[in-house]
Amino acid sequence: MNKQDLLNKLNQARPFLSTQDFIPILTHYCFDSENLVAYNDVAAIKLVLDSDIKGAVPGSLMLKMLLTVQEETVRVGMHGEKEVKINSTGSNIKLPLLDPEEFIFDMPDTEGCDLVQVPLSFLSGLEKTLVSIGDDPLHPERSGVLWKVRDNRITLYSTDSRSISIYKWEDQSFFKSDDVDLEVITPMFFCEQLIAIAKNYADELKTVDLYFNTTENYVIVELNKICHIFTRLIKTEEVTDYDSILKAMLPDDDKDSYCEIPVTMTPALERAILLNNTGKLDEQKSHITLTGTQLNIRTQTESGLVSDEVEFPKEFGDVEFFLDPDLLQRSFKYCTQINVGANILALTDDENFQHLISHTSS
User: Fold this and answer.
1) Distant-in-sequence, close-in-space partners of 352: CB < 8 Å, separation ≥ 6
2) By CB atoms within 10 Å of each CB, which of 69, 80, 268, 321 scores lowest?
3) Could you tell me the strand order of the sheet in which 91-96 lies?
4) Does the pTM of the predicted model rise above 0.85?
5) Which residues contact 182 (CB under 8 A, 6 or more apart)?
6) For the purposes of burial, counting CB atoms within 10 Å of the CB of 248, is it exposed (0-12), middle (13-18) or buried (19 or more)?
7) C-beta of residue 231 within 8 angstroms of C-beta of residue 43
């Protein structure tokens, strides 16, 4: 077996191994001679992989052992019913094997699920929405991405209570799902792994197929029929009414209400963040003053003071507020246009993505 091919599969599955050993099987790679499966009690991955193994191998140990092998080819197979043997020139490695009866996860069938089929390029929009995901355990609905699928449109939303991200996608020539009407929340981990793993299949990947089962509360992604990713959806009694919030807060859709983000804003925000990081965690805000086309970013802590002037190509009115500069800087990775309002900062990629950041008067 080619060692690098095996390592590639194991590394794709590694994030789906549990880091807790309360249930041993959740920390193991599970092999059935045709597939490799890893499951952490919430999410799972199934990869097509031909092998001579039928059972479960300690995941972290197997991966670390293979990384020590220098040869390009290794022999991996069963050694009796309780061990896996990994051989290379001069090396003989034996690892314990759990019986297949220990497996506690089978990839569900996709029959009867709602199919949402998108191109690989859609995942770039999904990635943008991750910038606003929260981590408050009291608000699980904010720890993932809300999908609204209807009328051949997909709208993605996320929020961390301080910012909101929205991605809208519509392609009548590609997306054929007139009968699909969904409103579900996918966990951040699932979104991150889907984006990362899909890149491994980018050259041959024609579509990303998502099978949503709202009755049993899960989604399965199929990539070229050789990779399946499973996760449970986030259950919540309360779903944020993003559309009402956006209607009240978003500036006019007129593109003239936005302007290019000045190049000098990035280093100015970096300086503000550096200084804020020397202060108290709950006081990491900068004082922002906009007068005409002049924006001043002033940050002061016990470690010092930094003040930067940024010139905008247009006037937004006179505004004064406090803002965590990190909230703004992180959005620059995905946005090129900005609008400064009395209550929010609105940013966009000038296409299908919008990002709102709230600011305060103190």
Assistant:
1) 125, 167, 168, 169
2) 80
3) 75-79, 83-88, 91-96
4) yes
5) 114, 116, 147, 148, 149, 150, 212, 214
6) exposed
7) yes
Which are the contacts of 215, defined by CB distance < 8 A and separation ≥ 6? none
Question: What are the two backbone dihedrals, phi and then psi, of residue 134, each rounded to the nearest 5 degrees?
Answer: -95, 175
pLDDT in tens, 303-355: 999 999 999 999 998 999 999 999 999 999 999 999 998 889 999 998 899 99
| pLDDT confidence of residue 337 | 95
Q: Which domains does the chain have, with CATH numbers?
A: 3-102 (3.10.150.10), 114-242 (3.10.150.10), 254-358 (3.10.150.10)
- How many Å apart are CA 240 and CA 245, to the nearest integer? 9
Give the range with max mean pLDDT: 84-88, 137-141, 206-210, 271-275.
271-275
List, for residues 16-75, the tens digit of each pLDDT value: 999 988 899 999 999 999 999 999 999 999 999 999 999 999 999 999 999 998 888 899
> Which SS3 state, helix, strand or coil, does residue 298 take?
strand
CA gap 210, 301 in Å, rounded: 48
Q: Are strands 344-348 and 114-118 parallel, antiparallel or unpaired?
A: unpaired
Helix pair angle (188-198, 122-129), 10° resolution: 140
Distance CA 47, CA 320 (A): 53
> What's the pLDDT score for residue 318?
93
CA–CA distance, 216 with 140 (Å, rounded to integer): 18
Q: Which of 342, 259, 265 is nearest to 308 (CA)?
A: 265
Number of Cβ within 10 Å of residue 261's Cβ equals: 18
Query: What distance in Å separates the CA atoms of residue 159 and residue 164, rounded to the nearest whole number?
Result: 4
Let me know if 219 is exposed, middle or buried by CB neighbors in 10 A (0-12, 13-18, 19+).
buried
Give the C-alpha distances (Å, rounded to integers) separating 77 from 17, 84, 130, 165, 242.
21, 6, 40, 48, 53
